[in-house]
Amino acid sequence: xxxxxxxxxxxxxxxxxxxxxxxxxxxxxxxxxxxxxxxxxxxxxxxxxxxxxxxxxxxxxxxxxxxxxxxxxxxxxxxxxxxxxxxxxxxxxxxxxxxxxxxxxxxxxxxxxxxxxxxxxxxxxxxxxxxxxxxxxxxxxxxxxxxxxxxxxxxxxxxxxxxxxxxxxxxxxxxxxxxxxxxxxxxxxxxxxxxxxxxxxxxxxxxxxxxxxxxxxxxxxxxxxxxxxxxxxxxxxxxxxxxxxxxxxxxxxxxxxxxxxxxxxxxxxxxxxxxxxxxxxxxxxxxxxxxxxxx
Length: 295
Hints:
2 domains; 7-stranded mixed beta sheet; 3-stranded antiparallel beta sheet
């Protein structure tokens, strides 16, 4: 089994190599989901900085700066190749800085008024832990907006065909972590405001062009590095055999989580020896509204 250190190194190399193609091919196609994720932070926020874990090539940095031009914004990503493009995109904006690092490690983050992440959570080694740490980095009243790809993105379409072709060759992990995310949000002292599927149209010139983009400019790059050309040739043939000819149009579904950290969060001893999590939210607006989050 690959060690965590080797896994991070392989992931870093893959995304370094994919960065330019990702920015060209996928960033424009992901823009509708970026708008949705940013819209949840287009509200008054408490004092603090804004952080974008898994910031990639930086379109989120620009979008968030347009919403909150007075705020300092930090973008974090494991890939220096991605961050080079993010720097080029934001170097004219002095309040934006980028940092190479593991997005799960929040120790160096500023107190966060908002955390925004687009399509990075599903790549974490431990997504529930990463999400919990992102929530814990929020100041009281701070907002989290996370968009990610669940294991089931579509019932029928190129993302589904790609996953099925891989599953015919590799044993894919069961994504039990997806169901644990709301619990992690609440355990970190936040109120889950939204947990919804978000679909938008996406188009590709052909099934083959999608496949090649996944391999050269997307998460499939790690498969090329891990398995080699012969394995990829078989995967390509399998994928194309199950896909229709001609242009592709589909509506992949992302999952959007939005949460607000309580203005005050603490744990108390409840009846029958149970420990109960309590969050006080919207103190300024609602006057100490108390939400019992559960044991």
